[in-house]
Design brief:
Layout lengths: L1 E6 L6 H12 L5 E7 L4 E3 L5 E3 L2 E2 L8 E4 L12 H13 L2 E4 L3 H8 L6 E2 L6 H5 L6 E2 L5 E4 L2 E4 L4 H13 L2 H10 L12 H5 L4
Parallel strand pairs: 1-2, 1-6, 2-5, 6-7, 7-11, 8-9
Antiparallel strand pairs: 3-4, 10-11
Helix pairs in contact: 1-5, 2-3, 5-6
Length: 202
């Protein structure tokens, strides 16, 4: 059983979180999922729903997998030392680190992506890359895998990335089965990214 710590914060993008968790959640014998937040209670996502915080940052930083969503509330401000310190420590302990959309900007702002390849939301590409001047940003990619780091493009791309992670940890047949069960057309090629062209990102 592998543990997944899913970071949540006010203004996170709903599908960034729940798209990947839909697939991991279909495998309860393989993955246990908790949401992790800075304050107790709940946080409000971008679309207005409140989501419970299962565990506080200071209640643990050891998870097998990390999931970092993006959204308009992405706490890239370096003044937020609690979140940034937790990410650095948790990333050091995790076997797999995943980000969706502008979640990679948050990872980049902590320095954990320095020297690595990564991607992000194409609509917000120019904004996101400023937080990681030492990151090798890949413009045309649905998701990017570099060692234990998986970073995806915008919003729905997190679902493709999560299936790639499941394929790596388990097998491709399981990932394809989950996609079929969800009636989801999985983009298996990480370089297939029509949105890069649409947003003028190369």
């Amino acid at each position: 059983m592998k543990s997944i710590g899913a970071l949540i914060f006010p203004g996170f993008e709903t599908l960034d979180l729940f798209g990947p968790l839909e697939f991991f959640g279909w495998l309860p014998e393989e993955f246990s999922i908790v949401t992790v937040g800075e304050t107790a209670g709940s946080v409000t996502c971008r679309s207005g729903q409140t989501i419970a915080v299962d565990r506080l940052l200071d209640e643990g930083d050891a998870y097998d997998l990390l999931l970092v969503p993006g959204g308009p509330g992405t706490p890239v401000d370096k003044a937020n030392t609690a979140v940034h310190d937790w990410i650095r420590t948790a990333c050091g302990k995790a076997g797999i680190v995943m980000s969706v959309c502008t979640g990679s900007a948050l990872l980049a702002s902590t320095g954990v992506l320095d020297g690595r390849k990564a991607t992000t939301n194409k609509m917000r590409f120019n904004w996101a890359v400023q937080f990681g001047p030492k990151v090798d940003w890949i413009g045309k990619a649905r998701w990017v895998e570099d060692g234990k780091f998986f970073t995806s493009s915008g919003v729905s791309a997190g679902m493709d990335m999560s299936l790639a992670v499941i394929s790596r940890l388990l097998d491709q047949d399981t990932a394809r089965h989950l996609a079929r069960c969800a009636e989801y057309s999985w983009t298996e090629d990480p370089a297939s990214d029509p949105f890069a062209v649409q947003h003028g990102v190369s």
